[in-house]
Write a structure and sequence with these properties.
By secondary structure, the chain is mainly α. About 65% of the residues lie in helices and about 0% in strands. It contains six helices and no strands. The mean pLDDT is about 85.
């Protein structure tokens, strides 16, 4: 994963953004030996965040889950900027759709709390 991280410098490269998000999450969970890789990749992720707070070609919830796993001040700043995208996806009943309802609700809650937008 760290070798892939070294090669990934462009959103449109051969490595799909979803794959990089999954790899970043694993590296974040692995801890300090891989912090340099996650810090470098975080810059690419932050640069690709849209004006609406989301990302093209990446599901918002795995992205937020990964950012929360990274947990650095820089990652949490990206989470804060994602709040409009999260709110836009929330339905009137509080859910985020039919797919992985509980998991997405938990990620949404954790992101809201991290962004200072929780209950």
């Amino acid at each position: 994963l760290a070798r892939f991280a070294e090669q990934w410098s462009d959103w449109g490269s051969a490595l799909a953004p979803d794959a990089i998000v999954a790899g970043m999450h694993a590296l974040a969970e692995a801890g300090p030996p891989w912090s340099d890789a996650t810090r470098r990749l975080l810059t690419v992720v932050a640069e690709r965040q849209g004006d609406d707070g989301g990302w093209s070609e990446v599901d918002l919830f795995p992205m937020l889950d990964m950012l929360l796993a990274v947990g650095s001040p820089e990652a949490l700043a990206v989470v804060r900027r994602s709040v409009p995208a999260l709110v836009a996806r929330q339905r009137s009943d509080g859910t985020f759709g039919a797919t992985a309802r509980q998991e997405r609700a938990l990620i949404g809650l954790r992101a809201g709390l991290a962004a200072g937008q929780g209950p």
